[in-house]
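Appendix B. One record, verbatim.
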Amino acid sequence: MQKTIYSFAIIRSRGIIDAMRFQPIIVAGWKDSGPGHWQTRWEHCLPHAQRVQQPDWETPDPAVWTATVAAYVDAAACPVLLIAHSLGCLAAVNLPVPLRAKVAGALLVAPADVEQPGMPGCLRAFAPVPLHSLSFQSVVVTGDNDPYCRQERARQFAAAWGSRFEVIPQGGHVNADSGFGEWPQGLKLLSALRRRAIWRVAAPLPRVSPVPASVAAP
């Protein structure tokens, strides 16, 4: 469980949150993320962050949820960084193939295993969990005692998606109830992901100075 909380001012002064060349898009899970959740805190501190607003948070429909996330990605004017939690991770990794090219990276926190026994029916509708390889940088973060996904199952997701894998001891579902508010360590993971994502974003072609008239061919 997270023990130390730092202010966002300190985090900014240490350069963890710097100017982004990307569009952060926050993808919450079932029933949305409340005011104490790290996603809500980040929404107000990350430059230009957008938060996906699903039409129905209580009875999610997988096709609608994925289409809603896809609409936000499609509307982005620059490469996207997806910041997803729980059920939102499944909507994020299930984007239509043409739109995945617009994603530079994804932070996938506490992905929900909708196939495990005892999950509500509305969540089981998201099964099977997509296990295709992702074409963008990604990291999966899980608590080693997450009630909604066993650690080995989360490791399986990360391996299938081609994601880096991070385990938080006693992290639970990595939400406000587990003690994760500002979650500065998560911001460090996001910053590292952003740096890796730079390498797959095509740089603009260099400008070529016009040839002076005195040396131009006749």
